[in-house]
Amino acid sequence: MKATTISAPGAHRPDPDRPVLMLLPGMVCNGRAWRDQARHLAGRCEPRIADYGGACHMTDMARAVLAQAPDRFLLAGHSMGARVAMEVQRLAPERVLGLCFAGTEYGPSPAGEAGRRETESRDALLAVARQQGMPAMARRWLPALIPEARLADEKLVEDILTMIAEHSPDQLEAHIAAGATRPDSRAVLRAITTPTLLLAGAEDRLRPPAAHWEMAALIPDARLVEIPGAGHMLTMENPEAVNTALDQWVAACRPFCSRGAASTPARPVNVD
């Protein structure tokens, strides 16, 4: 998908009583990752699952989201989707009425030994995807995504494996490439002026709670909720706890939705 416009037409004004909630999936995830939340919030929001198309850069993904969104909207992202949400916030903060970041971090793509390990790990997953198929890659990756105790949960495992297998190796490669372009988002987080919720899986080994506490220290008045018993796929592992936290976040965003924007207009953040 080609999307370069970041100013939505004025005719698409939000309904303050039922604002659009853009839901951004993570790497080789889709609407399944946000399914329970979309159903739960449908009476109070208009959930929309973002489509990154073939974008392979964080900025291009963010522009794709902005092209699909109305003038003003709530924004929630999981994992890679949360990094895309940060880039949306950098490009068009005046359009975002509230933010939720789940299972993520804020730093740049790592350099040195850490960067080498990340590249090798993701290249290995891509090799499995190309040589054995996406279902095999999903099974290889699964133990890193959920706690060991949840591997016996057949419904959860099947849902995650099916979701990943709905993607192609080319999509996986595009998402890996996008992850390699993630910037240092500290300046973006410090400049946020709207209600912000951080969700961390209490047992997430990929993006541990500690990273979320660091983010909470950067974002003014952020609220952090650790989701018990959940790993990296927290929205699917413990949807009830996630939904409860989102209920409170949506309620906190109501005054911003009624005004159509934050009381003090935000400006794009320059991170160059």
TrEMBL record:
* A GO MF term: acyltransferase activity
Q: Which residues form the AB hydrolase-1 domain?
A: 24-243
Q: Does the keyword rRNA processing apply?
A: no
The family database entries (InterPro entries) matched by this protein are listed as: AB_hydrolase_1 (IPR000073), AB_hydrolase_fold (IPR029058), AB_hydrolase_sf (IPR050266)
Q: Does the keyword Zinc apply?
A: no
Protein keywords? Acyltransferase, Hydrolase, Transferase
What Pfam families has UniProt attached to this entry? Answer: Abhydrolase_6 (PF12697)
Q: Which domain of life is it from?
A: Bacteria
Q: What Gene3D superfamilies does the record point to?
A: alpha/beta hydrolase
Q: What is this protein called?
A: Putative hydrolase or acyltransferase of alpha/beta superfamily
Instruction: Report the source organism.
Output: Alcanivorax dieselolei (strain DSM 16502 / CGMCC 1.3690 / MCCC 1A00001 / B-5)
